[in-house]
Amino acid sequence: MRSSSYSVMPARTLRALVVLALAAGATTAAPAAQAETTAPALAAKPYMGWSSWTMQSSKYPGLNPDGDYSYLTEANVIEQADAMAAKLKKYGYEYVNIDAGWWMDKAWKSGFDQYGRQKPDPVRFPSGMKAVADRIHAKGLKAGIYLPAGLEKGAYGDGRNPVWNADGCTTADIVYGDLRTTNGWDSAYKLDFSKPCTQKYIDSQAQLIAGWGYDFLKLDGVGPGSGKSGDQYDNVADVAAWQKAIAGTGRTVHLELSWSLDIGRVADWKKYSQGWRIDTDVECYCNTLVSWENSVDDRWDDTPGWTRHAGPGGWNDLDSLDVGNGRMDGLTKAERQSYATLWAIAKSPLYTGDDLTRLDSYGLSLLTNREVIALNQGATPPARPVTPSDPQQVWAAKNPDGTYTVALFNLADAPAAVTAHWASLGFTGKAAVRDLWNHENLGTYKEKITQALPAHGSRLFTVTPHGSALGTTAYEAESPANTLAGNASVADCSACSGDHKVGNLYLGGKLTFDKVVVDKAGTYQVKVAYISGDARSVDVSANGGGATRHKFPSTGDWSTVETVSVPVTLKAGANTITFDSGSGYAPDIDRIDVPKSSS
After folding, report:
1. How far apart are CA 83 and CA 89, in angstroms?
2. Phi and psi of 240, rounded to 5°?
3. DSSP codes joined into one string, 175-199
4. Which residues contact 73 (CB under 8 A, 6 or more apart)?
5. In this predicted structure, which of 106-110, 236-240, 362-366 has the lowest mean pLDDT?
6. Domain-embedded: residue 41
7. Which residue among 8, 233, 494, 495 is buried most deeply as judged by most CB within 10 Å?
8. Res. 571: pLDDT tops 60
């Protein structure tokens, strides 16, 4: 089942029952498909496609007429594949991914073959999983399938179920003797990879899905993550075993991990898989597919810490992009565009959960905008915030050709203007601006661009500088010229300029830069280099005046430095700039860079 779907809402509890019985399969495994001799590198770019879970999980009238999650059937999957081939394939969409429930009957009773492997429900998939993959392939598309981490309880039997192609191995030989549970729903027994039979069980599953012809596997409930932590829920060994097993099939299979993966283990996710869900389910489990407040809007807070980990071979997965069905999506047009904008600039896989047979014209325009798709699929790096995570935000990335991807977001519940200052991008002067959503050159703008945005609205630009590099003056946080108050103290920091930072900015801790000199009065876009393992807020003020509270996005851990620019009004000559934690906990500060000219 899709990501955190089991654990957050009652519907997810039902899904837990689904996973309890994961089952699919055939009595014996078909021979593994031969490896393609010229197969492209896996995940060279974020994958594009469709996933069944969004419609399975929704209470939207008519989607699940035979009970919760009943949408998932062979007929519906093929219908969506046909629609993708007709409407989206030419834009790069290729994966048709079957999510949780293909092993379950409509009463949520599971089936397994005699080897403890998942077996497709004959009512949902009367032709079997191989025939479905064949139908998808016949459209020039790729087929995806789903499994949970661990040995599903229903597959254990009495511990005597044999493991396919592993003489003498039974299900009792692959789990811990105390039958400890694992995965995000505790729906499976934890596999013990110190036992030689255990890898053989994963091999048998991999041979099964490869023999059916699947090109993609979503492994769900993986920990640390999926709402669980600790040794019992550490499934890194499972992921490593799956990578090994897939390689042994000789078939190219994309391995995607879900959900809310622990960023502290990102090196493992990158080593063993091609993608990882960074967050909870995007679906609202309500009478629409999603809602802005459920978890679409969470991604602006949760994505920044992961940004630097995305790249060819492995991508940060923000979950389904459900912007194509209008009223069914449950979003305004502005929200749909912002949703699609963030997914595109974050280099998330672009897979929708919409009903592709009834895309509205606006939704189709979002899903098929060639300039936005090219941004997501091309050599451009992921964008991240260049301003604090306040209601009005600017995200940007410098592209290999010297241009910038720039996105403006108004996350407030009322209309507001949002400004991108060229200083926050590192240059000054003029720049040409192209609107990607509207395929329009907007002309040349000096020093900044400001746009009036609706509630939850956005704009997406390519900015081409015609000015010069921005001159700045650096001020180190640890300088003896500064004033520390409260708990604030200097600490070592190998990632920081000068190898030091100021930390312990909490419960009244303050850092004041005492001698910040500028030539003339004005508002300066001061770039703050900081470290923060989670999103934290700080009050910023100048010369003892009123403070503005800004939330700095997570840098992902406590050893990575990132930057954001904050507007600070300074007088000509010497100034003080203070970072005050107030009653909370603020980021650690490395240094500030003050432009030589105001904005």
Report:
1. 9
2. -60, -40
3. B-TT--EESTTS-EEPB-TTSHHHH
4. 124, 125
5. 106-110
6. no
7. 233
8. yes
